[in-house]
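Example record for the data management plan.
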Amino acid sequence: MKDLAGKTAFVTGAASGIGLGIATALAQAGVKVMMCDIEKDALDTAISNLKQTNADVAGVVADVSLKEQLQAAADATIERFGKVHILVNNAGVGGAGGYGQWNDAAWDWTIGVNLMSVVWGIEIFGPLIESHGEGGQIVSTASMAGLVAAVAPAYNVTKYGVVALSEGLRPELALRGIGVSVLCPGFIRTKIMESGRNLPGRYNDKIDMEAAAAEANKSEFAQMAADLINKGIDPLYVGELVREGIEEDWPYIFTDNMFESGVDDRFAAIKAGFDRIRDRTPRH
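Corresponding structural encoding:
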């Protein structure tokens, strides 16, 4: 994947934020991009703007938490471009509330978008990438919360899952000519705190997004996070890092070093756990 010009990519959550940054950076490198999002108006605007730069892009509206819609989006990609080389599983939502605040529907939505869409994306697009024998790359967006459980439990769980899935598949898919990368961004200037704007109608009477937002706003951490996101890293910069990560087959793509010490602390705690039982002989 050293030369991306002429290749085809499918990017979810592509209408704004990191997804749009990735789609833009890939288009700038001559990649044909199928942009997928649940938010039609934002998607139409993003496509229109990119086409003004002579980018070869198209769009498909899909709720990626529904497997049949993701399959339909894959079918549309093959119909439009003939083949696909790059899969970017990027769509994500902020997640359910904290301990004592979540409910089954919120977990279902968060897991569906953040984790199952990645599972299904790989299941659906992996064989399509293999089929042409030209190689390819799968990039899935996790978060630094996939390495340090620092935010809402459901969000942490799904992002850890994306990291685990990517790490586990990387050696296996390498044998099939597919590189696997996991993107773990820090605070990026996106609308992640406004995830409720795209809540599917089937959850309207099960998840009270206004109440959840009001409760979250009481949290000092949530207020700090909102401020850091508003002042966050440019999504196009993230897209450029992802493009480089695809070209060089990076296993991990980071956006900054803000959480590096937190990762060090986590692994130090894990190592300490082994040290506690190092001199003991297990009983069999």
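Summary line stored alongside the record: The beta strands are 8-12, 32-37, 57-61, 86-89, 136-141, 178-184, 252-254.
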